[in-house]
Amino acid sequence: MRARNRLSPAFLRKAPMGKYCDGAGLWLIVRNDGGAQWVLRVTVHGRRREMGLGGYPEIGLAKAREIADRWRAMAKDGRDPIKEREREIRAARREDISLAIITADAFEARKAELKGDGTAGRWLSPLTLHVLPKLGKVPVTDLDQRDIRDTLAPIWHTKADTARKALNRLSIVLRHAAALGLDVDLQATDKAKALLGKSRHKPKNIPAMDWRDVPGFYANLEEPTLTHLALRLLILTGVRSGPLRNLRIEQIEGDVWTVPAEAMKGRKGATDDFRVPLSAEAQRVIDLARPHARNGYLFPNTRGGVISDMTLSRHMERKGLEARPHGFRTSLRTWLAEATDAPHEVAEAMLAHVVDGGVVRAYRRTDYLEQRAKLAERWADHVTGGAGQVVKLAGAAK
């Protein structure tokens, strides 16, 4: 048996920087800043484990030996002392495994997967608004399907999409808790969904303007204001409001606008930037907007950020229109279907939709930019008062 109790209190009070063994795996590590830390090294199932026992002199020599004896005995029984200590800490501080705490931990682990590292808060908002106020303090190990059902029942039929997202996020949080070694019911969300039943909510599509009516609306956007210019470019490019409102001047090069991959929505599995062909009319609109640019943004607001989505929506609302800005994507897609012979994959690419699996995309190295550029010019011709005649693409299927 290895010698034990090698160190003395007198030596520790004057110990210089270095590592000092008291025996049986107990070490004192003295740092160059004068601080010191007790460390215990044990072997469990043939694997060496090293655990900190606390600082010196807060924990004296006698206390360090006492603590070490306890963990050594546990290791001798074949139990990992580090995992056992973690279990004890969780048991002593149950608030550390509350749903709110585990949710925050799960969010941190997923931030890299979210657009802008989740700064917009959209991943968390269904939970922070509808779940955590009621269940945030509940230990995640106590959470069951009845808790979840009772919490989501008030919005299950009235805010079905939000409720569905909350259920999805809860499932992710529970899986995260299980990965932490907590005893949770991974089927709780599925059971809650069964208890809630089928939602009566019928999703409504965002109102869209008929593509034949778009030229008339576009003609009324004659003032060189940010709102008018932003709506014009939104119509011409078919992009979503977010990338357009956050458009930066350096993203534009000639007749191509390159939207960063992290700014795109609805392109799960796609990691490339998205190139938007700019028609001559779109380039003219951009040139008209350039004098308004501030801090690199083409459509800034007065507070240092960018114009809001509501600014564009309210303009259409004030005009007495049912259609909303996002609906112009539908207008464009319907025009592509009814007034052009664009192949399906090209038409979908106009709206940045991902239509193929990862393997297909890996082999198909094209974004149909040239074909989309021709369609963009024809769409601009229609929008600005052209005839909107059927467009023929060279090489398109008959």
Which helices and strands occur, and which strands form pairs?
Elements lengths: L8 H6 L3 E6 L2 E5 L5 E9 L2 E10 L4 H16 L4 H12 L6 H12 L14 H6 L1 H4 L9 H12 L3 H20 L8 H9 L17 H6 L6 H12 L3 H5 L6 E2 L2 E4 L14 E4 L2 H10 L19 H10 L9 H12 L4 H7 L7 H6 L5 H15 L15
Antiparallel strand pairs: 1-2, 2-3, 3-4, 5-6, 6-7
Keywords: DNA-binding
Protein name: Integrase arm-type DNA-binding domain-containing protein
Please provide a written account of the structure.
This is Integrase arm-type DNA-binding domain-containing protein. Keywords: DNA-binding. It comes from Lutimaribacter degradans. The model is unreliable at 266-270, 356-364 and 387-398 (pLDDT under 50). This protein folds into 3 domains: 9-92, Double Stranded RNA Binding Domain, CATH 3.30.160; 95-196, DNA polymerase, domain 1 (Orthogonal Bundle), CATH 1.10.150; 214-383, Intergrase catalytic core (hpI Integrase, Chain A), CATH 1.10.443.10. It has a 4-stranded antiparallel β-sheet, with helices on one face. A 3-stranded antiparallel β-sheet has the order 5-6-7. The chain has 18 helices and 7 strands. It is an alpha+beta fold and 398 residues long.
